[in-house]
Known about the structure:
The chain is of the alpha/beta class. The chain is about 40% helix and about 20% strand. The protein is built from twelve helices and twelve strands.
Amino acid sequence: MATNLSDRLARGDVILIDGATGTEIERRGVPMADKVWSGAAALTHPHVIQEVHEDYIRIGAEVIIANTYACSLHVLEGAELGGDFEYLNRVGVDLARAARNAIGGEVTVAGSISTTEMDGEFPPVDVGRQNFLHQARIQADAGADLIALEMLRDITQTQLALDAVYATGLPVWAGYSCKMRDGEPWLYNLNDRLSDALRAVAGQPIELVAIMHSEVADIDRCLDVVAEHWDGPVGVYAHMGRIEGVQWIYDGTLPPADYTERCLGWVERGVQVVGGCCGIGPDHIAHLREHLPAAAG
């Protein structure tokens, strides 16, 4: 790891992460694949993925997240890409590391694992446990500095993914994706409350809890719940827009200055890690970097 991110979080630094990779490579002309969205892009357009990582590093992102969000084995098998599982997870980390090497600087490379089932179903517990463990080991062996668990939406599958990362010894970030129901944040599957999900991981060695791929308007209420159930470092990378089929629709996307204003408000609440998810690109992250001097650590 180019910089000791764990120490920086412990001393209260504010850290800037990247923006979206999937929607950004789509915006640059990379076709999204049915059932696996951006997960297959490294098979056809690895240079675009690396270019996006490089652009985020140039504008000051201190953490870049590999394009492996949709590369869980059960997701790839649903798209008849199971045979590419090891390659896609390894090359996803390789491309992020290559971008860091090309641009330089103290940049942390995070692998990405998600419990999303995309258009399929969650695997059985025993199968999921082995799949996530295999995926985590591939990314660790490829040189990831930490692993970000993204779009966590189910308590059982989340625990399987956490256990897999614990087995590698790498730091782990837990990124929960939420929707509002009756004024309360629920995980995306709408079966588990965010509060219950956080209670389920109490006392576990998670380095950071983040609210990610959640609507900007819902973040503050989610942070209220996080504050009630988590006393460690907190991150936010929200999304803007919506998906239709495999295409991202940029409805209601805030201008960079407006998104920066929201992020600064979250930082005032104690959020230490900020960036963006789907629909939030380099222009947003560049503007945020200009107004987030503490991100330099």
